[in-house]
Write a structure and sequence with these properties.
By secondary structure, the protein is an alpha+beta fold. The protein has two helices and six strands; from the N terminus they run αβββαβββ. It has a six-stranded mixed β-sheet with strand order 5-3-2-1-4-6.
Amino acid sequence: MKNMMIKKTLVLAALLAVSAASQAATAICAGKINAVSSHNPGGLYVVMEGVNVVKYCDFDNQQFRTNPTNCLHMASVMNSALVNNKTVTVYIDNAPTTACSSIVSWFHADVRYFAMNRL
């Protein structure tokens, strides 16, 4: 009886793990920056062409893997891209979909990678 209960618990845990993993995707978004804003308290919000407004990081607290120092760097890169009309590439690891245009407004992103591109 006890073994059966353990097996059922393990199966349920495995199903929940698969379900949780399937709910998050990596969205690779690239495009020009339409707006960069700061909300205090809050953080850095960016609107990229084809993507709704997304919270990329927090200036005061760790947001997923991005700490406040990295947030300041990201803000600098995003502002530079906006002013210089450059494209940016961003990897969002906790996106609800791989389609950047389907990410809901005000989404709190787990940014793994970002770069300003030459184009």
